[in-house]
Amino acid sequence: MSVSPTEAQIERLYNKHAGLVYGRCLRILRNEEEAWDATQDVFASAIRGWGSFEGNSSRLTWLYRIATNHCFNVIRNSSGRRQKLDQRKGERPGAGSGPSAQGQLELLDLVSAVMEDMDEGLARLAVLYYFEDMTQSEIATETGLSVPTVRKRLRAFVDQARRRLSKGFESQILRAIKAGTSP
Fold this sequence. Notes:
Blueprint lengths: L6 H23 L2 H17 L10 H18 L1 H14 L6 H18 L4 H12 L4 H8 L3 H20 L2 H13 L2
């Protein structure tokens, strides 16, 4: 049987956590409008999945997990990924001017290419650790993994990224850059 929240429960949950969920979405998506849309989608998902909440974590942790997964799915969309990359290029101070700006754009392209086909779990942990500045302990709490498992998987991510960069990955990067600059 499906469990549905009451209107009062939904209102309390939204009033208490909407700002924090929006902040999480904004950090990942880096666009205010998309972050608000994602926030609404997160709460809609939470309402639909109300009965799946097991109580092993706080409602906020549950909402964060839904928000993070939703935002990753938005970014993972192939056309959305290219748009995000183009948008982020324009948002960075000095983008498009001088050699250091060009280096930053190339680095962003490189990181995006490295993570393109990487295991979703590894990529998710890497984003939480390297881009959201979460500690290994915070990631463990968020994902339900142990701290040693988080540490091991982050090490696996770094090893996999290094291998991709050192072994034949150059041709993939060149193809991606060429495809992005061709008329």
